[in-house]
Specification:
The chain is built from 6 helices and 21 strands. The protein has about 400 residues and is an alpha+beta fold. The chain folds into 2 domains: about 120 residues, Alpha Horseshoe (Serine Threonine Protein Phosphatase 5, Tetratricopeptide repeat), CATH 1.25.40; about 240 residues, TolB, C-terminal domain (Neuraminidase, 6 Propeller).
């Protein structure tokens, strides 16, 4: 689900974002970001290109990374090589405007460049086969995620702005469902109809605990809620044990036995709440150099495999062994920095800011989390005020 990292894009790695001194191998993504800004300000474009290529090795199908490498090549005077990377950008269905970026000015009159820009422009045109399921009357709700409640034939929708959950009835009418003083911004939502439970994750930014100790980056606090599905009464709240560290519970998946798996975007971790224990535990700490910013999550049929969306791509997690491997991305799409995930007939359909990444649709910032029906229909929130 989108969170502050997505409201202010976490990794749109263009020329203003990716430039750095040659980083040490242990330099993680935040470290590279810091060095990037320093090198760009100093016009060290060769260093910029080196860090862009390092990102490309980690996440080769990320549109921002591809654009960053193209920019770096243009900045060091290799326009033909830059053009090949822009062609790759068009191939995966991304859209950018290099024709308005002075970095690529030497290429503007090239027929090959103009053809690539035309493909990028074409990628911007929506190619949607769905339709609006319903329209919310509150223009200030800012919906992020939704879940279907089969017991009442209604949707449960979370609000980022108003910190509450509402019910949407079949006739389109809405009622407040969960609204307590300690709710934060509502992100991932999941209905456990077998146990009449509603689970949802929340988060909010908070100021650094001690700026004198060097904590300058804004931190996040997070809470996971378990509620009675019928009444909306909060049954339990869960928070990470290390409260002085920034955390962001984002999306969740529920196994048939009632175990709940939750992603922590800030730490890149997976948590689990076992139904027979009902306590929060760290389930997986992936290597942050290969799997960072855990976001969408889905269980494959049989509950033996988890699919998790990371900044670098989609990871497949064996629940028994806790081993993680990255799925290979299709050549004509990107699986980097995906948001919601649905697993339909054991095939993972990632939704990247509302688009099915598998179908190479353009990425639109207004789209949020997703929900899938048993019939295979994918529902996704659209954050044009009040519209889904």
């Amino acid at each position: 689900m989108n969170a502050m990292r997505l409201l202010g894009p976490a990794l749109l790695l263009g020329a203003t974002f990716l430039a750095a001194q040659a980083p040490a191998p242990s330099c993680n993504t935040p470290c590279l970001r810091e060095r990037a800004q320093e090198a760009l300000a100093a016009h060290r474009y060769a260093d910029y290109l080196r860090v862009a290529r390092q990102f490309a090795a980690r996440t080769p199908d990320h549109p921002g990374v591809i654009y960053a490498v193209a920019s770096g090549l243009a900045l060091i005077g290799k326009p033909d090589s830059a053009l090949r990377w822009l062609e790759r950008l068009a191939q995966i269905g991304a859209s950018r405007m290099p024709a308005s970026d002075s970095v690529f000015a030497p290429l503007w009159k090239s027929h090959a460049f103009q053809a690539v820009q035309a493909r990028l422009d074409a990628n911007r045109v929506p190619n949607l086969h769905g339709k609006a399921a319903f329209v919310l009357p509150d223009p200030d709700l800012l919906p992020e995620a939704l879940a279907w409640d089969p017991s009442t034939a209604s949707w449960i929708v979370g609000s980022l702005a108003e910190r509450k959950l509402i019910r949407v009835r079949p006739d389109g009418s809405t009622t407040n469902f969960v609204s307590t003083s300690d709710l934060l911004r509502v992100v991932g939502i999941h209905v456990d109809s077998a146990r009449s439970l509603l689970w949802f994750a929340t988060w909010a930014p908070r100021p650094p605990l001690d700026s004198a100790r060097g904590h300058h980056k804004p931190m996040s606090e997070t809470r996971l809620f378990k509620c009675d599905l019928r009444s909306g009464r909060v049954l339990r709240r869960y928070t990470p044990a290390d409260s002085e560290t920034s955390h962001l519970f984002n999306d969740l998946a529920i196994a048939a036995n009632g175990d709940v798996y939750v992603t922590d975007t800030e730490q890149g971790r997976l948590y689990r709440i076992r139904a027979d224990v009902d306590s929060l535990e760290v389930f997986l700490r992936p290597d942050p150099d290969h799997f960072s910013d855990a976001n969408g999550i889905a269980l494959a049929r049989g509950d033996r495999t988890l699919y998790v969306a990371f900044l670098e791509g989609i990871g497949r997690v064996d629940i028994r062994t806790r081993q993680i491997t990255r799925l290979r991305a299709p050549v004509n799409a990107s699986t980097a920095e995906v948001d919601g995930l649905c697993c339909l007939a054991c095939n993972t359909h990632p939704v990247s800011n509302g688009s099915l990444a598998i179908s190479s649709l353009p990425m639109a910032d207004q789209f949020g989390g997703s929900s899938c029906s048993s019939a295979g229909t994918v529902f996704s929130s659209y954050q044009q005020p009040g519209r889904w």
